[in-house]
Amino acid sequence: MKVIARGTFEITMSPPAAELDGAAARIDFDKTFHGDLDAASRGILLSAGDPATGHAGYVALEAVSGRLHERTGGFAFQQLGQLTGGEPTLRYAIVPGSGTGELAGVVGTLDLRVEDGVHHYSLAYSFA
């Protein structure tokens, strides 16, 4: 049975650094989650394309550590984002097998929306 965790997060991103002979950019980031997920994360994002023209993509991994509802531990998120013709798509999921501590076995997907500059998450999760 899936449980839903909701809240907000702040993100701080480093300036982009060129990778793969300039074909991609690397951005390191830190997040602080509030709400049902009370945690901190660090991540690595690789992007390519030209967002100014409405065409780009990125992949990211982030390691999360903290409390999810009443359980403490950690897990990793995996992200895949694309911008095609100015229309974004995003897949955001917990990496299977990445849970530690009381979060061992956690699986799930995250929906994200940004309103007035605030990042809101809804994380549907269960334990395998």
H/E topology pattern: EEEEEEEEEE
Indicate how many domains the architecture comprises: 1
**Number of separate helices:** 0
Largest sheet entry: 10 strands, antiparallel
The percent of residues in helical segments reads under 10%
Quick synopsis:
The protein has 128 residues and is mainly β. It has no helices and ten strands.
How would you describe this protein?
With 128 residues, the protein is an all-beta fold. It has a single domain (3-127), classed as AOC barrel-like (Beta Barrel). 0% of the residues lie in helices and 77% in strands. Strands 1, 2, 3, 4, 5, 6, 7, 8, 9 and 10 form a ten-stranded antiparallel beta sheet that branches. The radius of gyration is 15 Å and the shape is globular. The mean pLDDT is 97.
Which features characterize this protein?
mainly beta, AOC barrel-like, 128 residues, 10-stranded antiparallel sheet
SSE arrangement:
Layout: E1 3-13, E2 17-19, E3 24-35, E4 37-50, E5 55-68, E6 71-84, E7 87-94, E8 100-101, E9 106-115, E10 118-127
Antiparallel strand pairs: 1-3, 1-10, 2-3, 3-4, 4-5, 5-6, 6-7, 6-8, 9-10
